[in-house]
Amino acid sequence: MPDLAPPVLEYLYNLSFKDRSPAFFLLEKDGRLMNWGGNPEAYGFTDLKKGEHMEERILLLEGLFPPDDEQMSLSCVTMESGISADVHIFSGEQGYYWLLLLDATLKEAHLVALQQEANELRLFRDRHLKMMNQYLAKKNSEKVFHLTLQEPGDSKYLSVLFADIRGFTSYSEKISPVRVLKSLDEYMTAIVRPVLDEGGVADKIMGDAVMGVFGILPGVSPSVQSVKAGFRMIKNVRSLNKVRQREKQDTFDIGIGIASGKAVLGIIGSWDRRKTLSVIGRYVNLASELEKQARPNEILIDENTFRAADDFQADFSKATLSLQGTDMPGQVFSYEAAEDDG
Question: pTM of whole model > 0.85?
Fold first, then answer.
């Protein structure tokens, strides 16, 4: 055993045992009590007598003496007094055994809280998955998968929108999973609904980001649909933030990127896997890059989207960006929501 200075021993005691009401008992091989100390009263032992069999006082000890192992630990055992304790039995000199009790009330409460949180997390995860299935399947599959798309792929003029919740990743690393999923549920509702309401398809939901595709379903210009969806996303998030501020909860903004052009659209998946809609092409990559460079509450759109969404051109101004990972820099246009918008 290392030679520890008294201050170190005192520190270790205060750190690990002081608030756990340690009580110890020195027992013979047959379980008879030889000596005791600490705080046995905390566990209901107020009239201890030398020579008495502790198996009669602590039922879990019945049949354990002499122990088969030199040391044994039992976690969160409910004593006869109703107190929860960690029980440690270990051998000492001359064949004696030590019985150590440490109050485990707080530990047990913490374990119960963790179990409760795990149960809540499971419920929220199930609810979140149901919500995602509703968005990705119920509202979209009835429309999308009735289209006559060729599985190998079909070329189509589309508008692709990427939206990301700014700062949510770092937030999720510091907050409990239950709170993270609650927040994600609220913000995803605010972000995904405009995609669906404007006739788009929520193609992918990737953590705290959404990819929406417009132009798969017949109707209004996909560029117009995507821009209107972007405006509504920011408005929804602003409204949600006001509610969360009143409730003293963390709030987040979103960044949005939109690009329009020819893309490969098709159904992919092997015979033994669920088939999914997939959109591939340079404009998908461009929209993703625009989203990455968008500031909070900003929508960045490419030139194709700007030209087609003529009703909203006055809301956008030219932006100078250095786009990475795309061979189509072109002209980029920016809409940045004012503080009092929404």
Answer: no
pLDDT in tens, 121-168: 566 555 555 555 555 444 454 444 444 444 455 678 999 999 999 999
Helices 177-197 and 222-246 pack at an angle, to 10 degrees, of 150
Contacts for 233 with CB less than 8 Å, ≥ 6 apart: 163, 190, 191, 194, 254, 256
d(CA 51, CA 59): 17
Helix (H) or strand (E) run with residue 214 in it: strand 209-214
pLDDT in tens, 44-84: 998 899 999 888 888 878 777 777 778 888 888 888 888 88
Pair 156, 261: CB distance under 8 Å: no
Q: Answer whether 264's CB lies under 8 Å from 155's CB.
A: yes
Taken in order of first residue, the domains within the chain and their CATH numbers are: 6-103 (3.30.450.20), 110-336 (3.30.70.1230)
Please give the Cα distance from 306 to 311 (Å, whole number).
9
Given a contact cutoff of 8 angstroms between Cβ atoms, the answer to whether 219 and 197 are in contact is no
Which of 54-72 are b and which e, b meaning 16 or more Cβ less than 10 Å from the residue's Cβ?
bbebbeebeebbebeeeee
Q: What DSSP element (H or E) covers 326? A: none
Pair type for strands 298-302 and 317-319: unpaired
- The β-bridge relationship of strands 332-336 and 298-302 is antiparallel
Q: Please give the C-alpha separations between residue 21 and each of 79, 83, 266, in angstroms, as whole numbers.
A: 14, 11, 67
Return the bridge partners of 95, or none: none
Which residue is it, tokens 């599959």? 141
**Contacts of residue 284, Cβ cutoff 8 Å, sequence gap at least 6:** 160, 211, 259, 263
